[in-house]
């Protein structure tokens, strides 16, 4: 049995692709599932997208550990304009495109 397991649900497509890229650079195959993938990007307002990251069962524990490491290494920053949490790799807020403020990083 080589089932798939849901690793996490991202709040938006950009976040999902960021995680996917980081995991794939570690050799873990990631599959994205979610309503946001059905239509073209831009048809859905940002903020209500729900994208899930799935990995194969043997990779799950490694992927989970990888996520914890990435989270520890890269604390999120909070947008000063809309107060959304952003990944540290983002230079602009995913939600309102405001610039990252070092004060809050
Ligand atoms: Zn913002």
Index terms:
105 residues; alpha+beta; Alpha-Beta Plaits; 2 domains; three-stranded antiparallel beta sheet; 28% helix; elongated; binds zinc ion
CATH architecture annotation name of the largest domain: 2-Layer Sandwich
Q: What order do the helices and strands follow? A: EHEEHEE
Beta-strand segment tally? 5
The level of helicity is 25-40%
**How does the major sheet shape up?**
3 strands, antiparallel
Strand content: 15-25%
What is the overall pLDDT average? 81
Can you list the strand order of the major beta sheet?
A: 1-3-2
General shape: elongated
CATH topology of the largest domain: Alpha-Beta Plaits
How would you describe the overall organization of this protein?
It holds the Pfam family DUF2007. The chain folds into two domains: 1-73, Alpha-Beta Plaits (2-Layer Sandwich); 75-105. The protein contains two helices and five strands, in the order βαββαββ. The protein has a three-stranded antiparallel beta sheet with strand order 1-3-2. It has a two-stranded antiparallel ribbon with strand order 4-5. The chain has 105 residues and is α+β, with helices and mostly antiparallel strands. Strand 4 and strand 5 (85-86) form a beta hairpin.
List the helices and strands and how they pair.
Elements: E1 4-10, H1 13-24, E2 31-34, E3 51-56, H2 57-73, E4 77-78, E5 85-86
Antiparallel strand pairs: 1-3, 2-3, 4-5
Bound molecules: zinc ion.
The site of zinc ion has 8 residues, from loops.
Concise summary:
This protein has helices at 13-24, 57-73, and strands spanning 4-10, 31-34, 51-56, 77-78, 85-86. With 105 residues, it is α+β, with helices and mostly antiparallel strands.
């Amino acid at each position: 049995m080589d089932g798939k397991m849901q690793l996490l649900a991202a709040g938006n497509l950009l976040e999902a692709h960021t995680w996917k890229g980081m995991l794939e650079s570690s050799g873990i195959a990631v599959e994205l599932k979610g309503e946001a993938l059905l239509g073209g990007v831009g048809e859905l307002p940002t903020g209500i997208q729900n994208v899930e990251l799935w990995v194969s069962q043997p990779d799950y524990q490694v992927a989970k550990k990888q996520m914890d490491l990435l989270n520890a290494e890269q604390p999120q920053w909070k947008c000063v304009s809309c107060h959304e949490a952003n990944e540290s790799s983002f230079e602009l807020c995913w939600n309102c495109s405001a610039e990252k403020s070092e004060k809050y990083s």
